[in-house]
Design a protein that fits this description.
about 160 residues; alpha+beta; 2 helices
């Protein structure tokens, strides 16, 4: 009489399937987070590039509050129909960076805006550093685990090519 071994197969499958589902779900979530980060990085880069090529941006105080800079940021954040590319996007922050004349290596330091007024619009920056204020929160949902909050903080440094 021959003994059946079907029970072993069911037991092995019952042990292996949750591990397989965990791995597949984890790969999908890592892909989702990577895609969102790439999209955020492209938005931040596009905003920085638009501001860096604009003419007449006021670099005294908050650059992102300037009307010309805000129009460039809105162009990068929205699609052709005016719909936001990513919902609930935090404000975009723009900081000016200048090359340190005392350092031969060309280290970047924040630009001097102490002599700003309506006529003298401060020193022309060499670079703009564009970031998302506070980052963008994403919930990673992997099967059998609680959602894991991940904060994405894309940042780019673009050379300034416009005229202040």
């Amino acid at each position: 009489m021959r003994r059946r071994c079907g029970g072993n197969m069911i037991l092995e499958a019952a042990l292996f399937i949750p591990v397989l589902v965990l791995l597949i779900g984890g790969m999908v979530q890592i892909g989702k987070v990577t895609y969102v980060y790439y999209t955020l990085k492209k938005i931040v880069w596009a905003a920085g590039r638009e501001v860096a090529t604009q003419q007449g941006v006021n670099f005294c105080g908050d650059v992102a509050g300037d009307a010309v800079a805000q129009a460039a940021i809105n162009l990068a954040v929205n699609d052709a129909n005016g719909t936001p590319i990513i919902a609930n996007l935090p404000p975009i922050s723009i900081a000016t960076q200048c090359t340190d004349p005392a350092n031969a290596g060309g280290a970047l330091i924040p630009c001097d805006t102490s002599n700003c007024d309506a006529l003298n619009l401060a020193q022309k920056p060499d670079f703009l550093v564009v970031t998302l204020q506070g980052g963008y929160a994403v919930q990673v949902r992997i099967p059998f685990l609680n959602p894991i909050p991940v904060t994405l903080n894309p940042s780019v440094t673009v050379p300034f090519g416009g005229v202040s």
